[in-house]
Specification:
Two copies of one chain form a homodimer. By secondary structure, chain A is an alpha/beta fold. The first copy, chain A, is built from 14 helices and 16 strands. In chain A, strand 14 and strand 15 form a beta hairpin. In chain A, helix 1 (11-22) crosses helix 12, helix 5 packs parallel to helix 10 and helix 7 packs across helix 8 (171-180). Chain A is elongated. In chain A, 53% of the residues are buried.
């Protein structure tokens, strides 16, 4: 019998209980031991539940129970989750978490404590919900140098963009619908401003390249400035707009990492990842492109990933899983302004669209014009190749100096 | 230092050496031990290679070397691979293989021997080449009841179908091109007749549902009868034709398993898996649909999957990986004739197409007509719902009795 405790009985925590109870027998068979939830930490009370008597409001009931060898953290947020998880690892308890904010902010430190104490710290559910991604990157791709990871990592923004693309709904209307359907929270900023995707790409980057990347090191841009005009230009160009978390190892040994809306070609395997789904592309030198696709959030998908980690923990009490990265290094992340790429630019100026493009072309020689349906007077869209952000911004300033208004600039992806 | 031996220096075997040598340092770091190939078994000689002195033609050099703890089998085919692998497992050596024919025919037996001797028998590379799929199914989805797996499991046939769909190339012409490009062998029957896909769906079914399914239990149909007319009907219906290996748990506890070309809706995540790529959809009660996508074959992708298994083996000399299924059970597979589904039917009869469809409709009330461009005189295509194979064949015989010629019938997928 393996005794565990669950911190937090919210969406994911209650899902963990549900999965453990529903699949009790098959889980015991797979873990080769029965798994019993001895304590559940929550400040609320749930008297109607059959396991109501296992609730506690005091974390010390869990920390000081020597029978509890695995603690599952599903509280979310940095505190008190961090304090509790750290205390568990320092007191001989392995930890499984679904908390991406915690792993993105404190992963290296917690992995180090786990390693010192010969314990497991597992977090498959922190990225991609029920999609297996942490384990495949760390194990299956072990004989492979990963060069790039790019993913649609946030279901809420993907739902909003899908509505904008397919039904020409405006951003605000699509956001309101997402809130109505329970896909977006009342304060949607962590999703729509890109912070959630940023935490996830930090975790994947840390894992794939071996040193911790912190969210504050990553240039992060959400989808609040994406307009239906941009969506139409993407379509005319031959693709769609998706919010992408991307990390790439540069030849100078630094990481080019960012979260931003990007033009994705219709041919890309990420172009058809729609609605609340997530898709993650891992590019390796031996495997080529491997893509993982599925529901990136939700009670049961996330809970099943948590429980799979618990099962793995139970099976490996003596053999620590190899999952590790070092703390971050100075100068590990390439300054955002230096990252090169292709871009779509959307401008407006005096005269008609042909004149607007002619002006743009005089500043960006070789720019390729993109014409959308129903272009308004003086509006022009075009693609420019292989330019750094600082180079782009310099030229956009020049364009504005010459009377054009720059409405938007969006990265064009190369996957 | 972990000493290993490699059986077979063909495409995959030489790829394993290449990956081990190219990534020597990072692999040692991940395995926490250096991995050294001590022997390579091959009847040919490779005097120009820097590791030429490690070749042997005598399997006993490997079997009787107590320093070799892991044997990598990349010979392919059932014999002598089976005899060698069995001998290794019976003599205390863990085995990693890329040989789908071996695993599909002898998996349960070899897993049992491995378990008895507390050894690992790993075969990530046997399905999906470099796509991680065996491990995600067995571990990450451990807290999940898998209800269905459907996959594009053979890159050669997918390449041929993609050429037929996109470039309207005929089957023979597309096959010839695949051979020219090295995607198909001179004798392409194992690919185009479905045997390769059959072995892979057997391995996935055995793993996901716990009892061995043997290839001879599985109704297998290739793509040799698919015509450009069928492709055009699929397009008119709203999708594409793909060769699918599918297994589903029925309510009666039996598996509905088959390999067949199917109509796939354009909305399906498998519809855009093109060229030599593979895509595998795993449907679970908690995770929903998870899809794995990537290159399903090729020297380096397959070799990197083999080496990842070797690394896992080295890290788990003492802790056996949990990977197991029992031997097959009688009546475990639903008789093919009883499996229900939706079907596309393509007929030809006297008169014009409307008359041909009217005749079809009199036999299949509720049939939905599908009209392709350039339909020839008397040709009709239609979809019928929820019918067993035996029910379908009975009605098709009736239709033929009434003067129509049945040109083809193709399953319509429900994923």
């Amino acid at each position: 019998m393996a005794e565990i405790a669950v911190l937090g009985h919210g969406v994911v925590g209650s899902g963990v209980l549900e999965v453990l109870l529903t699949h009790r027998e098959s889980i015991a068979r797979r873990a080769k031991e029965e798994i019993e939830v001895k304590h559940i930490l929550d400040l609320r009370e749930f008297p109607q539940l059959e396991y109501a008597n296992r609730f506690t409001k005091d974390f010390n009931d869990i920390l000081q129970d020597p029978e509890v060898r695995i603690v599952v953290e599903c509280m979310g947020g940095l505190e008190p989750a961090f304090t509790f998880v750290k205390a568990c690892l320092e007191n001989g308890k392995s930890v499984v978490t679904s908390n991406k904010e915690l792993v993105a902010a404190k992963g290296a430190l917690l992995l180090e404590i786990a390693q010192k104490n010969n314990l497991n710290f597992l977090f498959e559910a922190s990225v991609g919900g029920g999609i297996p991604i942490i384990r495949p990157i760390s194990q299956c791709l072990a004989a492979n140098e990963v060069s790039e990871i790019a993913g649609i990592l946030n279901g809420t923004t993907n739902f909003i963009l899908t509505k904008m693309i397919r039904e020409h709904m405006g951003f605000q209307e699509a956001l309101a619908l997402a809130q109505e359907l329970g896909y977006a929270e009342r304060d949607p900023s962590a999703d729509v401003e890109g912070a959630d995707a940023c935490r996830k790409i930090c975790i994947l980057a840390s894992l794939a390249f071996g040193s911790h990347v912190y969210p504050q090191q990553v240039h992060t841009q959400g989808i609040t400035k994406i307009t239906l005009e941009d969506v139409a230009y993407a379509e005319a160009w031959g693709g769609v707009i998706k919010l992408i978390g991307e990390v790439k190892m540069l030849e100078n040994g630094r990481l080019a990492i960012q979260v931003a809306p990007m033009f994705i070609s219709r041919e890309s395997q990420l172009a058809n990842v729609d609605d609340v789904f997530n898709g993650i592309l891992v590019r390796g030198d031996a495997t080529g492109d491997v893509v993982f696709y599925g529901k990136g959030a939700g009670k049961l998908p996330t809970a099943s990933a948590v429980v799979a980690d618990v099962i793995d923990c139970v099976k490996h009490f003596k053999a620590r899983k190899y999952l590790f990265w070092e703390d971050g290094k100075p100068d590990y992340v390439e300054p955002f302004a230096s990252i090169p790429g292709d871009f779509f630019v959307h401008v407006k100026s005096q005269g008609d669209s042909a004149e607007a493009f002619a002006l743009a072309e005089s500043v960006f020689p070789g720019a390729v014009r993109i014409i959308r349906r129903d272009e308004s007077l003086g509006e022009a869209g075009f693609a420019v190749k292989a330019i750094s952000i600082s180079g782009l911004e310099e030229k956009l300033a020049e364009l504005e100096g010459r009377g054009a208004k720059v409405l938007n600039q969006i990265k064009i992806s190369d996957f």
